Amino acid sequence: MRVRLFINGQPLKPTGTGAGLIEGNTAWLTDVSLATCVSNTPFTVGSSFTDGELTRLICDDLFVFAEALSDADAKTLFELTTAASAAEIAAEQSAARTTLPTPVITRLSQHSAEIGRTTRITVYGQNLASARLYSDVTAISCKPVDAGTAEAVAFDVTVPPETVPGRCVVRCVTNAGVSNAAVIACDRVPTAPDGTFTESAPAETLPVSVAGILGGTEQKRVWFKAKAGQKIIAEADARRLGSTLDPVVEIRSQQGGPLAVQWQQPDLLGDARAAVVIPADGLYYAELHDLQ
After folding, report:
1. pLDDT tens, position by position, for the chain (292 residues)?
2. Strands 152-158 and 118-126, sheet pairing
3. How far apart are CA 88 and CA 172, in angstroms?
4. Are 43 and 57 within 8 A, CB to CB?
5. Among candidate residues 52, 47, 44, the one with its CA nearest the CA of residue 3
6. Alpha carbon 192 to chain centroid distance?
7. All domains of the chain, ordered by start, with CATH?
8. 37 φ, ψ (degrees, to nearest 5)
9. d(CA 192, CA 188)
10. Are 195 and 173 in contact (CB under 8 A)?
11. Do the beta carbons of residue 140 and residue 160 sit within 8 Å?
12. Cis? peptide before 207, omega within 30° of 0
């Protein structure tokens, strides 16, 4: 589902979507059940619940359009509805914005960094131009690749060899303030991008780590070769990194036969770890999907 907001005929930039994505002035909600969006309660503008609302607005008129408005359409509608006061209203409210917008992190290109090496991580969000990245582990170095843009900035993250495996918190800092936190896992397993290990190009040696984004009803697979008697463990690191994903991890044979499945384990803070002893030499895959 695409969501766009306008004030005084001008588009607003979203600062967060929960499990969704942000692209420019558009927020995409990736896991929307239309069946649960139907309500027989009286219509109000805002986030409505039986016991209250997060937002309340007073509306003189309510318009329903057959298709989404463009930026030009929204500006024209604002000018038509406010008549001669449009310029005055826009100027008055624009003049009141005296503070610089603070940086916001919406996602990272990957939430892992290899110990003893330098990993390039791109931070996505808003108001990130010329941002610096700082970790709560002071020995970790985060060097900006360039000044970046307001929506994205890349860093070379170097984790010293003596670092103890674990998780660290990072934040972006600009002259306007400090961003929200993001979590990075530091370990000694090299991380590959999603789609690296396929049925035609499986992982030959283990362990491996794969970073990616899972949306909606997607299923992600990591293919690997294994031998009879070999113990295989597949683990999802999502909730512990700040994701809202309810991970389900399965290990299957090449033909799709289920060998192990796990989901939402309390000792993993809602993440999942599946384990199996391989019955025969061959090709297998670990699969991840969202329980919601």
Report:
1. 778 888 777 888 887 666 678 888 888 877 777 666 665 555 444 444 444 444 445 555 667 777 888 888 888 887 777 766 777 776 766 654 556 789 999 999 999 999 999 999 999 999 999 999 999 998 999 999 998 999 999 999 999 999 999 999 999 999 889 999 999 999 999 889 899 999 999 999 999 999 988 887 889 999 999 999 999 999 999 999 888 889 999 999 999 999 999 998 999 999 999 999 999 999 999 999 998 7
2. antiparallel
3. 36
4. no
5. 47
6. 18
7. 2-95 (no CATH), 104-187 (2.60.40.10), 191-290 (2.60.120.380)
8. -85, -5
9. 13
10. no
11. yes
12. yes
pTM, two decimal places: 0.61
Question: What gap in Å lies between CA 2 and CA 151, rounded to an integer?
Answer: 18
CA-nearest of 181, 143, 138, 182 to 163 is 138
Handedness of CA 38, 44, 48, 52 (dihedral sign): negative
For the chain, the maximum distance between any two Cα atoms, rounded to a whole number of angstroms, is 79
State how far the alpha carbon of 32 is from the alpha carbons of 10, 20, 49, 148, 289, in Å. Answer: 26, 10, 17, 32, 16
Q: How far is 6 from 171, CA to CA, in rounded Å?
A: 29
> The tokens of 51 are what?
């016991």
Structure tokens at 223: 């293919």
Give just the sign of the alpha carbon dihedral 114, 116, 120, 126.
Answer: positive
